[in-house]
Every structure is written in C-alpha cells, then in structure tokens.
C-alpha cells in the first residue's frame, strides 16, 4: 500500500521543537516528508477493506478498524477521529495503563501536525521511539473528521513496543485538545484518556456454508433502559417453545442496538439446568435483590460474545444441541453494559442471534470444564502481584473418559473472577508439554469471550491438560479462597470440543490432608496461632495465617508438590468410577518450545523522527 | 573509521548458496560489496590503537586485540589468524558454550570468502542474523596471516546478540579448515573450537603519576617446568628482607614469560598471617602432598592478575602497606597454568611486579570480606541450575565499625568455589537498594581478578551490603554445603577500600536453630527419616534430606525468611562487642533501578546479508 498523496505535497524541515526531540536520540534528521496538507474536502475514503471495527471511547469520538495479514505478520489500522481535535494518541499497554504504553501520536505545535511512533514512561511522559515501527500510510481530513491509516508488524523487537499476540489486547487512547510545542511536552495524565479491550489477531477460520434449512432465533432483552452507572450486568430469562425438537446451533452472532455500540461490552446466553422443570421469568440487573436464586442454576454457556468479536461459526462437522427432552427449555441472557460516562435515557434491545438447523451434523459439540475445583482449599495470599494456581486434568481421567480416537478442541473460554490476570492451558503427553491449547497473558475478567482456536487441538487418551491462572491480590488484605462468590476465585477453561463425551468436568484441587499439614507447620514454625480446632473452616484457617514470606513461599511449595484430588466427573456431582483422591501431580519434565520472535528486517523503514503530516501554513 | 579498500575493489553478486541463506530471512539482497581482494602482500597494518590483547587459543593461532569507546558504546576488535585457514568464527556466549552463541563468521565456499554476523542455535547449527550488527572495517592478508578489524555496539537489541556488559565475557572461537557451501551448512560441533574468559569493558580509570622514589619488587616463581596437565596451581613461597620498613604498594602488574602468554591464566600474591614467626619455603604444585599445611595460613590477598588485565593502579590517595612489624614477611605466589593441549617442556618464570614507595600516601587501603560465613548451615541442594545464597553486612555492623565519614570501595574481587555462576553485591540504605557495588552475571571460578570499579562506592554508617551468589549443582548428587573445601562452597566479595578500618569481615549465615526447625519439618512432612539425633552434624543432616520439590522450595523459603547470625569481626576470630545472633534479615523494599538498554539507531547499517570479503577469482 502506498501513501495517499493529496494535492500540494511538499518537503519541509522540522520545527525546532521536533528537531530537539529527534536530537535527543542522537539522530540528525535531515528531511521530513510532508505527506498530506490539511483539509482535503469532499472526497470519500475508498471502501473499507477492514473486517473488524470497534468504538474506542463511549462517546464514539474514536473508531478503530483493522485487518490482519498473517503472511506478512502485519496489522493495518484505520483510526477515525470525529470533530476538530488538536491530536490523538492510540496504542497498547499491558493492562490498559497509560504508563509504559506503546503509542502512535498525532499532535500539532499549532503550525504543523506530526505523526510518530512513541512510548510513555512509568510517569506517563511521552518519548519518541528509537525505531519508528508504526508506518503512516494515509492521513485524510473529511469535513469534520480525520482518518489515519497506518500499519505495524506484530513483533518489532523494539523493547519499547508491545508484542501483539493472539490474546486480549488492551488498547489505549487519548484526545489532545490543544497544541504542544514538542512530543516530550506531553504527559498522558493531562489528557482525556481511556482503554478498550479487544482480540486483535482473530484466527483465520474458514466460514462453513450454511445449509438451506437454517433458521434464526433472537435471544434479546426487550427495550432495556440502560442504567446510568458504570457497570451493569443485565439478566433476562426466556424459553424455547414447548416441544421444540432437537436442532443443532451452527452459528451465532451479536445483534447490537444501533447507537449503543460503545455501551454493550459483552453478552452471554446460558442454558438452565435440566433438573428443574421450570424457571421463573426475570428481566432486571443480575445483582438485583429481586432476582430469584433459582437463576443461579442457569450456567451452561450456549453462546458468548464480546466487543470486537464477529459471528461464531461451529466447525462444519459439529453443532450444539438445542431443544429435545434431555435439556432445559429455559435460557438466560446476560448483557454487560459498560457506561463509564453515566449516559442517561439510552434504551437497548441487544442480544444474540442463534442460527440453527434441523439437519443434524455428524457430531455434537460439547463443553468441558478444565482447571480448579471450586473449593477454598486453593487460595491466594493477599498482596501478591503474580500468584499462580494450577489445576490438572490427569492422564488417568482422559484414559478412562475419552474415546479412543480422542476429541478435538476447537474453541475455548477462559474464566476467573476479579483478581485473574493470566490464564493458560497446556497439553502434555508422556511427561512433556506438547502444545498450548489457549493462552491469555493479558486476560481480563471483564472481557470474556469464546475464542476459536487458531489450530484445533486433539486430546488423546492418556494426555494431561494443565490449566494455570495468575492472580493479582495487591489490593486485598485477606487471603482469597476458591469458590463461587465474586470475591472468591476460579480458574477455569471451558473448552468447546467434539464429539461430545460424558466427561463434563476434569479438574483438581490440593489434597485436604496435605493442606492441614501446611497449617500445622505454619503454627509450629511461627509460634503464632493458626486455628486448627475441628470447627474451623478452611477459609477461617487461611484468614488466620500470618502472611510472612515463609508462609507464602511454603504455600506455593505445597501446591507444587502435594498430591491432588481429581474431579473426573460426568456431571458436577457424578464421578467416573475409582478412587480419585491422593493422586500424584503429573510429572512434566519439559516445557512447550516457543518459537523465537522474528524481528522484522528494517531496510525499508523511514527516518528515525516524527513525520510532518499536515502544514497549516501561514502563522509563523 | 572507514573500510580499508585495497586494490581491485569490485562489486559482485552473491553465490547461490549465500543467496539461499539470505532469502531464508525474506531479504532480497541486491548487491554485495567486495571490500577486499585476497593476498594483499608486503604492507604492514597501521600501528595498533588497541590497548588490550589476549591469545584466544593455547597454540596462539588466534589473537584478539580490542579497544572500547564508552562515548559511542562500541568495541573495535582486531582478530589475527595465523596460517592458511579456510575461515574462522569468533563470538560470545553465556558461559563459553558453542551453542546459543553470538558469532562473527569468516568463511569461504572455495570461490569467495564471506563475512557475516551470525548465531548458533541450541544444536550448534549456524544461522545468519536478521540484523548485521558486527560491522567489518578492514580485512587484510599479510604473508601467512589474516587480520580482521570489526566493531560492534555493546547492546544491539537483536535478541540473538550477546549483551556486552562490564563483567566476565566468555569469548568463543573456532577454526574452519575447509570450505562450506553455505553458512547454514556449518555446525560448531565439527570444528576445532575453544573459549577464553576476559573482561572486555575495562573501566576507564585515570592513571595516577608514580612518585620519583618508586621501587619495584618481582614476586616470581624461578624457572618452573610447566606440568603437561590441563590445570596446575603452582605455589611458591618467598619473603621480604629482614627489617623491611613500612612502604605503600601503589601499583602492580603481571610479568609473563615470553611465549607462555596462552598458558599463564591467572596469578595471585598472598601475605601470610602474622601469627607465625616463620613459614617453610616451598616451590611446587599447590595440591602436592609435600606442601606444608602451614601455607594455608597465607590467604591475605596482596595482588591478583588474570588474563587480559593490565597494570593495577591504586587510587592516588591510598596505598597498601608492605613491611613493618605488624605484618608477616612471608608471601605466597600462586600461578594458575592452563595447559589443555598438554604442551611439554615449557619453562616459566612468570609472576607479579610490585611497585612501592616509602612516601606513604594519606590513606592505607584495606580489604574487607563480604558475603557468607564459611559454614555448612548454608547449603545448596543437588541438581539445581540457579540456586541463590545471600550474605548480609547489616546496618548495625556498619554503624558500629565504619568511620563517620564512611569508606570508599574502589575495587572488588568476587570469589566462589566450583559451582558459582553469578555474584553480586548491592548497597542498600533506608530499606532501598541504591547501587551495585560489583556484579558478574557470567562469573567463573576459574577467572578471578581484582577489578577496579567503574565508579567507587561510598559506604556510610548504617548502610547494608548484600552479597548474593548463584550456584549450579546440576552435576552433584549430594547437597553442597558451605566451607573451605574445594567441593564445598563460598560466597565472598573481597572489597578493596580506604581508609582501612578494624572491620575485616562482615558476613552472615542462617540461624542454626531455624535450620533445625527446617530439618524437623522435612522429617514430619515427608514421613521420611532425616537424622536429627544429637550426634548428627549439619552436613550429615543435609545429606539425608530427600530432595523433592517441597524440601527444595522450603529451604529457599527458610533462607529468605529466617533470622541470621552476623559476623561483624575485627579478625576472623574477634567480633565487635554485642550479641550478633538471631538478627532480623534486612527489610529491603525496592531493587536497584536499572537503566533501559539503549538500542542503537540502525540508519547506517549495511544490507542484511553476508558481505563478500575476498574473491579468489578463476575457479568456476
């Protein structure tokens, strides 16, 4: 793609402030290329080749579109900015902070407008990158909006640049309302800024053809008045028609009410348990005191969508059963509204459209839970920045419960509660890690979607599936124990696979006898009191541990050593036959081999300074 | 510096094999620059601007010279290769391995000779670097030898390149005896290779002027027949004249017998203890059964030199006392001969020349021992790759023992036994790490020298000095305990400082009562037998620990938590007054801030492929 040159292209020397910024890096930047003069009016941009779009801010001032070239390992971004602005910043950071961020900057000194690859330090101060890896291809002003087209390799090997991987990316943005004399004069703390989570590197999965008899069913909340609070989880119960026969869901997609694109953050459809005949109707906030407790039994995920996700197509050889006597007719829709500006009076009927067919596919797709059992035996001390808990699906369980031909995992949804920061599931065979099933090094509990895997993973009998979650409890004063509560923690990977088996749950937790040995040592070693009396519950015991470094390190040592209790279950209550207690931890001797990052060849890059993009002319 | 162009410069296209190698990296390398045609005879190279020289191999086939520009953060290397060779490789790796090394390659396909920045993978297979960071400046053939001049930045930010720091660097070399059709066809395992340890980044310390009355004294072994075994430590006892009055040593330097430069690896001069009137004379291998035990009391380092080191100048305000009634007249010289090719019949009189003066300087320089007490309480489990032990010089000790104005540390010698891999001493004040006193991330017990610090460090009353050593016990089957034996371990930093104080030793070890609690837990938790009977020694207790992950992790947790016994001593046997047992570990809340690596700007680099250096002409 060539830079789009408008009328009046010209060459220009940089202003003193820019020369200064560039010389800080020891470069004598000789010539700056003015690639566009402002106010190109009346010409529409060419039709968009960008399959993915998201609003960056709740007002819809900034909209991002992008496409991905896996061959070239490059992303093209198109950023559209509404209204007259002095400039904009866009970029990525570990968890959405404005500090230590990898940025592209468009700013003006009042005279000229510049584009540059930059970064922010730990105080939010902005600096020019040594390597200009974001490459501007086009800058276009249309009436009252500005459109920037630029590209960047996934990996730049510049230590100041974010490494774009296929997990969650925390995009950051900021709006500059006034000129700055130089890039170094800008600090992100003084700007109107925000973040948006997205998966940038969507997998390239071929789209199976839809059969002729495909039908659709919209699961949507009817005309909700979006509350003017930052976070609302809205719950709505609906039901399938009576005697609805067996179908296969083969695709689903989001339907978002026009104008609310920046407010609807993510949505999920759950099927209720089959153990109850009927569920009460409900339409209101999920945390409402009026919400019937029974709705907690509607937890079986049927569909999940999050901002930026496109339609979800099941592999052509599998479908998800919908209807029939064996499953509940009741469905729960949950919509997460994210309204940080407390916008009032907005009405919404967003939801999910299921595409289903009566022509059943050869395989039924199932969902299996991997990770940790929901139990307080697994706990995280307070004030930890990166504490890891691991759950195992052991070789003995896959040997017993999987078919000889194995299963294929094609999608995955990672799940923790509020302190989760990373999740990974790895497949191991014969004591060696073989491949990553799914991984998110920038996991956010506020951004949960079902992700198609780039490569489906086949799990054979005797394989081990290891799911690890990393937690940050810096802001907690007490230990965080495992459990269902929002202030308790989970570590789960819901894997979507076929053919469906009886195995619904393959998880583990530390053996409780060994945990009691831990509490005993804590007691003896520290000469301090940890309640080990018979009536103390495990959460009470954890609450009385003095969290010195020895007790923290010893808890990690325990979890890395002690035998486990394995839940190799048909349903949450029914285990496969056998004794699953005091199982040894899988002995894994080698880690997954990670390919080296491929640094791009830098032969074609531009000069190591900011580009002048727009010259306003006059005013010197 | 400009490339030296000889007669017949010409442009040439690469041979097919090279084109292949380059295209593997996706580069279309258009043009290769032939910068030298072979066999430039009769012209001497210009006078060498290189202050540092070392032989790379024991035969003296390869000799390296270098200089350092701290301003530009660049090293210039000159590599001289004797005899007709098909090529040579030179580079750096973590600990001298030929795998995962950062290399420059000079090789021929029989027709042309090429130069390239390359790297070896974990199997020793050689690949072209994406970034060509070694830049060839001159290649010159003089009669039967080849001289290469090239430069490289300290830090390249290419993940395949070694980061050159001011610690030990393990240089690697290899000689190519035959042509290879391409770079990728070369594997280091098939070559004649070796390693050499050196400090590349010597500090830029100004050289104080020598006074008029300076005298010299040579401490050298008389006409030693170098044994034809790989490793010999040669011991030689000599003495100062009777009634030798007080002087100050102000400089020392190595005197290496000509022709033995590649065999003399390092040398040290020790002063014997003053507690004995006389020591027996001795001249022989240090491990000889004939060596008198008394010589073990000659341990006070006066001078130390290792390969590549230049003369050692004391700061002009300090000198090391030599002579007088308060110190022993007896000196021990230790010479380490490294003779891996078992060369026979070589005679040697190498040693150290002390430069001393009767005009005493304002301050006496002293040596203080930091790190761990020599005690089995501090132990390393077997089969550990990176186990860290830490010794503390506490605020209470520096408060009591240092003068109000503090002391200045100007040099440091790090010391461990065979399993030591890294050593660092950090200064902390008010609970925060402030600066690194000395650090070697590529420490080798076989390369011990006294190093001048780039910046002298002032230690005030109340400061804490933390010395950590990292050990590798992969090849051990039993725990390695602290102690004097060569198979036991030490963690010591001998710091050279002024003004001299009474504090000779400021070290620590874990409290023995807490270690006994550890053995007790090991016993209870594992239901296994660890001997805790009264007659068991600590080494016996460590020998009976079953080294599962829990007991390993818990030992680390103990050393990071348990109180310590501090040795704040005037001499090894005399403590400063007070109770130094059960002291709390210093509470350090922040680490030393490390500056970001400065990646070089790559604007001026050459094409991303190998250079053709020499065209032999004809033969197609």
What report would you give on this structure?
Two copies of one chain form a homodimer. The first copy, chain A, has 620 residues and is mainly beta. Chain A has three domains: 10-202 and 602-615, Immunoglobulin-like, CATH 2.60.40; 215-358, Jelly Rolls, CATH 2.60.120; 366-575, Jelly Rolls, CATH 2.60.120.230. In chain A, 8% of the residues lie in helices and 40% in strands. Chain A contains five helices and 40 strands. In chain A, the strands form nine sheets. In chain A, strands 6, 7, 8, 9, 12, 13 and 40 form a seven-stranded antiparallel beta sheet that branches. Chain A has a seven-stranded mixed beta sheet with strand order 33-30-36-27-37-38-39. In chain A, strands 14, 17, 21, 22, 25 and 26 form a six-stranded mixed beta sheet that branches. In chain A, a hairpin with an 8-residue loop joins β6 and β7. In chain A, α3 runs antiparallel to α5 (549-559). The longest helix of chain A has 15 residues, at 512-526. Chain A starts with 9 loop residues before the first strand and ends in a 5-residue tail after the last strand. The model of chain A is unreliable at 1-47, 603-608 and 616-620 (pLDDT under 50). Chains A, B: Homotetramer; composed of two disulfide-linked dimers. Chains A, B: The modification Phosphoserine is found at residue 349.
